[in-house]
Amino acid sequence: MDLILWRHAEAEDGFPDEARKLTPKGQKQAEKVGAWLKERLPENTTVLSSPAKRTQMTASALTDKYSVTKELGSGADAERVLDAAGWPDADGAVVVVGHQPTLGEVAARLLSKNSFGGMHVRKGQVWWFDNRDGVTTLKAVLPPSLL
User: Are the C-beta atoms of 106 and 78 separated by less than 8 Å?
Assistant: First the structure.
């Protein structure tokens, strides 16, 4: 299984939090990363998005076939995110479009069996993990600025 953690791109400030949209810069970030992912993801990829507008806009830069999953909402629990993604047993690849600090907590859990807090996942950044034969590997960490 491949698990791709994708933090939403740069978003407007404002309230309510769930309604915040991407800024023009954030839209460009999402488009760059979405194009990079499209070239590399297998056909049997599932895309899951938080209910927040900014995450759905980010996911839309990759595909219009994504599922909104309440377990990925702002303030979500890392274990619930992994369960929603089917980690580590789902077939193919799963892209999770979500929020910090949750994605950083998921990354920390995957990098260390003794979870040590959270990693910092920047806006628009992708962390790509795979699990083969019970071994988890970090394949890539990519910020939009490198594309």
Answer: yes
Chain position carrying tokens 């590997």: 137
8 A C-beta contact, residue 92 and residue 45: yes
Global confidence as pTM: 0.96
Q: What is d(CA 20, CA 90) in angstroms, rounded to the nearest whole number?
A: 31
Cβ-proximal residues to 132 (8 Å cutoff; 6+ apart), any chain:
none
Query: Which DSSP string do the residues of 78-97 spell out, in sequence order?
Result: HHHHHHHHTTTT-SSEEEEE
Sheet holding 126-132, edge to edge: 67-68, 45-49, 93-98, 2-7, 126-132, 135-142
Tokens 């699990």 appear where?
Answer: 131
Question: Which pLDDT belongs to residue 117?
Answer: 74
**Residues with pLDDT less than 50, the chain:** none
Question: Distance of alpha carbon 141 from its chain centroid, rounded?
Answer: 11
Q: Which domains are present in the chain?
A: 2-146 (3.40.50.1240)
Taking a C-beta distance cutoff of 8 angstroms, is the pair 5, 50 a contact? no
